Amino acid sequence: MTAAALGAYPPLEGTLRPLSLVLGGLALAFLAAGLAGRWTAPVATGLTLLGAQYAVLFSAGPEAVDEWTPFYAAGFLFSAELSFWSTEPRVPAWSDLEVVLRRLGTVLAACLGAAGIAAVVIIAAGASLGDSLIAEVAGLASAVAALALLGALVRLLR
Fold it and tell me: Which of 8, 24, 125, 155 has the smallest count of CB within 10 Å of its CB?
């Protein structure tokens, strides 16, 4: 359901609607097939297409920063985590409510972290620091820091 909402957003906002609709439709078809068959490859393909669909929204031009990006990032990670969770082999531990709630809490915390990182990146992207070398170095350092933080979160959650 979250993936369907994510797939519906770019065609409503972007100027390249036909391409966005095709990518969104393919993404949802791959996700549905992967979830129905519990195959990870179609799920990964569907998520890749969903990300590509969102990228099309930005390819139309850099006029404005999308203020909904943090929400999209959280929803995308939530969809990805639940999709891959659905394809995992069933083990007896999943019948333990405490284990399920702990994992769900971890997923939700990761989604909040993704939204926070996306918000910081959006704020930094909208800031006007001029065309100086210092601004370029600050931008590069913030990008590296964001990727390092994301990597640390991934290691922490695995």
Answer: 155
pLDDT digits (tens, 9 = 90+) for 52-76: 888 887 776 656 567 788 888 899 9
Where residue 16 falls among pLDDT bands split at 50, 70, 90? low
Q: How far apart are CA 90 and CA 8, in angstroms?
A: 31
Amino acid at 88: E
DSSP per position, 100-129: HHHHHHHHHHHHHHHHHHHHHHHHHHH---
- Name, in order, each residue with C-beta under 8 angstroms of 15's C-beta and a sequence gap of 6 or more: 60, 61
Q: Are 31 and 60 in contact (CB under 8 A)?
A: no
Sketch the domain layout of the chain as residue ranges: 2-127
**What whole-number distance in Å separates Cα of residue 139 and Cα of residue 18?**
34
Q: Whole-angstrom Cα distance, residue 84 to residue 31?
A: 10
CB count in 10 Å sphere of residue 46 = 25
- Token readout for 121 is 């990146």
